[in-house]
Amino acid sequence: MKHWFSDLVAFQRDPLNFFLDRGKAATEPLVPLAMGPYAVMLVADPELVKPIMKAEEAMIDKGKLIYKLREIIGRSSMTLSGPDHKARRAALHQQLARGLATSYVPQISAIIREQAAALAVEGRFEAHHVTSRLTLRVICNILFGPDVLSAEDETLLIESIKLVEDDLAADIFKVLPDLPWVRARKKARMRHGRAQMMHVVERAKDRAGQASILRALDALKLPPEELGDEVLLLLLAGHHTTGTAAAWLLYHIAADPALAARLAAEARAVSDDTGEAVPSRLPGAATSLAVVREVLRLYPSAWWLSREVKQRMELGGRTLKPGTSLLISPWHMHRDPKYWANPDKFDLERKFAGAAFLPFGAGPRACVGMGVGMLELQLLALEFAAAYELRPLAGPPPGPKPSITLIPPPMLLGLRLREVAPPPTPPSRRSPVSRSDLAKKRENAPATVEPSLVTYLEYALSDVGEIDETAASLLEAAINRLRLVGGLDREGRRAMN
Ligand code: HEM
Predict the structure, then answer these.
(1) Ligand 1 centroid, distance to 237 Cα (angstroms)
(2) In sequence order, which ranges of 14-104 are alpha helices (DSSP H)?
(3) CB neighbourhood size of 8 (10 A)
(4) This protein's superkingdom (predicted)?
(5) Residue nearest to atom 16 of ligand 1 (CA)
């Protein structure tokens, strides 16, 4: 016989398969779940997502499942509604809007290169360990401004986040209360994690850059406690989601050398002659975008979303009472064979047009950091593939572990510098290039093309009377390679000039 929590055990034992099995077997758009004293519906039909996510707040809003997050992220964009939410969202949007996100290209690329160069020394790394740190550095840069946090502060933030997130995930679907001493221990961990994060925020606040999110939030004149809530939300939402997806992304590049070679070629095509990615070329970089989308389909970091019915209403052929929770699982929708052929296969030829693809949610509460998240993942694919050859050091990994986001299993990857082959030049077509030719080439370079590479070649060859084209292209490849491993950045070349 079914009782009011008969689905809870199956859910808690294996939440991912629970959502997937119930969603796949659904014969109605809404599937009732017995998960506690309140009515809960799994939204099985993707066509209902937009009507739910775009409904007036007075009808459908965030609800009790999300409010459990208030213990950590308090009164922040994720947990507020109405005018308070709108004001916060507008401030975040100012810095994160899709078009603006591309202004972060140089700083995100620099962080990826620096981190990757450090990995090259070891030659192997655990994917999520590296990507979670990397994405935290990126969100810190955007939140506080470039280079505001010290390495020690970054480490403190990572540790604090670890302290809070597992307990938080376990609490969300809990029906029975914890024993008092378990509860007290959890509370103490959360308090400690939060206090540690606030300590870092306080230290960084006065040094925050003018074009940073922190300044935009500061302009709202929030009470200090709420400014802290917002910062914590951004650290959690901005790094955890991207960091978990990024680990899978590196794994898939490592597992498919042909894909990695395509990405390396794409990286060259989107770069200017100094090797920097040109933001306006990124939307046309089809392979890296397809990799990012397919990773987000297979491993949607936000694997469930929830809303609550606020007024009695008709939806999906049912009458819903106020207080009914609506669960939407991108994990289910992204892997249901009704909407995707071979849903478990990593396939870059897919079309992503339908309503069953929602890694960033939908409507007015869709992810405000979507532009930055996509950009980070795309640059990660391009930068790593351009400079390194990755390979998995173990067999295929097991599936992800559901927590607040989808945590990847340990994935050990090897990496070594990619050989950059010079463009082939048949010996018969070699022609001498004199130093005065190089100088002329530099003078004639269009203003938009940075002439430092030519200048550097000239400098490097100052002892040689003349060189042929093959030697010049070999040197060019060597310089590119130096740049890719962070050995010679733009500033370095300027200094040489
Ligand atoms: C791959 C990366 C990311 C994924 C998959 C992701 C996913 C999501 C999803 C699904 C939502 C909607 C939740 C709901 O409707 O209940 C959301 C909201 C949010 N995300 Fe992201 N996110 C990512 C990256 C980021 C980044 C980089 C930032 C910050 C820079 C960020 C900040 C936020 C915030 C503040 C909200 C709340 C928006 C609101 O309620 O108005 N996210 N995210």
Answers:
(1) 6
(2) 15-25, 49-53, 64-67, 70-73, 82-96, 98-101
(3) 20
(4) Bacteria
(5) 305
Q: Which amino acid would we find at residue 143?
A: L
- Annotated ligand binding at 367? The verdict is yes
Q: Which atom of ligand 1 is nearest to the CA of 138?
A: 27
Break the chain into its structural domains and give their ranges: 8-417, 427-496
Residue 97 Cα to ligand 1 midpoint, Å, equals 13
Q: Quick one: which of 331, 318, 342 has its CA closest to 46?
A: 331
**Residue with the nearest Cα to atom 7 of ligand 1?**
360
What pLDDT score does 267 carry? 97
Would you say domain 8-417 falls under CATH 1.10.630.10? yes
Question: Best of 52, 61, 84, 241 to mutate for ligand 1, by most ligand atoms within 8 A of CB?
Answer: 241
**Alpha carbons within 13 A on the beta-carbon side of 14:** 6
Pocket lined around ligand 1, Cβ cut-off 6 Å:
77-78, 89, 92, 96, 139, 233-234, 237-238, 241-242, 245, 301-302, 305, 359-361, 365-369, 372-373
DSSP string, 440-476: HHHHHS-TTS-THHHHHHHHHTTT-SEEEHHHHHHHH
Give residue 342's region: left, alpha or beta (phi > 0; psi -120 to 50): left
Closest Cα to atom 36 of ligand 1: 367
What are the E-state strand segments in 78-145? Answer: 124-126
* Unique residue bearing structure tokens 């799994």: 42
Calculate how far, in angstroms, residue 345's C-alpha sits from the geometric centre of ligand 1: 25
CA distances from 459 to 433, 435, 453, 471 (A): 14, 10, 10, 14
pLDDT of residue 166: 66
* Winning range, highest mean pLDDT, from 94-103, 166-175, 219-228, 343-352: 343-352
Instruction: Please state the rounded mean pLDDT for residues 318-324.
Output: 97
Which residue did the predictor score with more confidence, 73 or 298?
298
β 124-126/318-320 pair status? unpaired
